[in-house]
């Protein structure tokens, strides 16, 4: 795992919780305080040397920010790696296309682009994978096996990954924002923060479970809560007046465009 930040830690933590052995994971992290933190928390080997971690690895997971990818690729290029041992590279980096890795790695290197999300920290991630040019079914199966230990896995063509990033990659932030706003609104109505937080969390959990398990779509489930002339209709009218639906169209388009821009500039 190259990059022990938030998403790198989420995958490491999820993998260990799902039964991966600590000896099978090595993290490369360049920030010393973070190195110490990860090694203590997870009892895994954390090093600042890409060459050290990559030697002997079957899978390299890149979890650095888009702007750091070229440095990582340069370090991998300099490392004297065992060329007989094929390594699958899995990139969790937003925006950066598989071709960017393929152009810098030895010819024929298999690269899988992944868009994960942070709920994998609790085994409920939604990961989407797209195959690079040299990926064979066995490589895709290995990427799937690793990611399925921390949630669901969906395969798409790489042309859809920017849109997927807008939906599920950034998606948890939208739900946390809604939760935050509902909690503040409940407090404004006079409820304690503890009570309103408990109610919001359980309402989100219960609603997501209904959506996942009832077989009904979101529009029908919403209609079932909306009694004629009732409280929900009054609330929905205000949300529509606030432009919430349009805001989501615009927000997801902005995220999709930003993902594409990160791929070309990395900044
Ligand atoms: N957070 C999320 O929900 C999601 C993130 N992603 C993607 O995951 C990637 C990481 O994001 P996130 O975890 O949030 O970012 P963070 O900044 O939390 O983590 C990146 C980590 O990588 C370290 N790093 C940078 N360069 C190197 C290097 N050369 N060698 C080793 N470690 C290095 C950074 O150290 P330092 O801080 O010292 O630079 C930092 O600790 C991004 O590309 C993002 O697009 C994808 C889906 C969801
Ligand atoms: O905000 C970002 O750029 C990353 C990618 C998806 C979620 N977090």
From TrEMBL:
Gene3D superfamilies: NAD(P)-binding Rossmann-like Domain, ProC C-terminal domain-like
Reaction(s) catalysed (UniProt annotation): L-proline + NAD(+) = (S)-1-pyrroline-5-carboxylate + NADH + 2 H(+); L-proline + NADP(+) = (S)-1-pyrroline-5-carboxylate + NADPH + 2 H(+)
Protein family: Belongs to the pyrroline-5-carboxylate reductase family.
Domain Pyrroline-5-carboxylate reductase dimerisation residue range list: 158-261
Keywords associated with the record: Amino-acid biosynthesis, Cytoplasm, NADP, Oxidoreductase, Proline biosynthesis
Presence of keyword Signal: no
Subcellular location(s) per record: Cytoplasm
One Gene Ontology term of the molecular function aspect: pyrroline-5-carboxylate reductase activity
Pathway: Amino-acid biosynthesis; L-proline biosynthesis; L-proline from L-glutamate 5-semialdehyde: step 1/1
PANTHER family per UniProt: PYRROLINE-5-CARBOXYLATE REDUCTASE, PYRROLINE-5-CARBOXYLATE REDUCTASE 3
Coiled-coil zones: none
Entry protein name: Pyrroline-5-carboxylate reductase
EC identifiers of the protein: 1.5.1.2
Chief location category: cytoplasm
Domain called Pyrroline-5-carboxylate reductase catalytic N-terminal: residue spans: 2-95
Enzyme class: oxidoreductase
Keyword Transmembrane in annotation: no
Function: Catalyzes the reduction of 1-pyrroline-5-carboxylate (PCA) to L-proline.
């Amino acid at each position: 795992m190259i990059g022990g930040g938030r998403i790198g830690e989420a995958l490491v933590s999820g993998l260990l919780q799902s039964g991966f052995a600590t000896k099978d994971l090595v993290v490369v992290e360049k920030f010393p305080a973070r190195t110490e933190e990860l090694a203590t928390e997870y009892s895994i080997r954390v090093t600042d040397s890409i060459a050290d971690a990559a030697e002997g690895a079957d899978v390299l997971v890149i979890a650095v920010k888009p702007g750091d990818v070229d440095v990582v690729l340069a370090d991998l290029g300099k490392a004297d790696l065992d060329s007989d041992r094929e390594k699958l590279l899995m990139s969790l980096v937003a925006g950066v296309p598989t071709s960017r890795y393929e152009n810098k790695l030895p010819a024929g290197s298999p690269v899988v682009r992944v868009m994960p999300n942070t709920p994998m920290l609790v085994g409920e991630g939604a990961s989407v994978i797209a195959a690079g040019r040299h990926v064979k079914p066995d490589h895709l199966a290995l990427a799937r096996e690793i990611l399925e230990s921390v949630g669901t896995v969906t395969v798409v063509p790489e042309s859809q990954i920017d849109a997927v990033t807008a939906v599920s990659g950034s998606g948890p932030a939208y739900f946390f924002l809604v939760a935050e706003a509902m909690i503040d609104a409940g407090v404004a109505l006079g409820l304690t923060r503890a009570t309103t937080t408990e109610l919001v969390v359980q309402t989100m959990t219960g609603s997501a479970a209904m959506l996942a398990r009832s077989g009904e779509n979101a529009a029908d489930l919403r209609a079932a809560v909306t009694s004629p002339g009732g409280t929900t209709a009054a609330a929905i009218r205000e949300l529509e007046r606030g432009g919430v639906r349009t805001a989501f169209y615009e927000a997801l388009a902005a995220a999709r465009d930003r993902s594409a821009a990160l791929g070309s500039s990395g900044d």
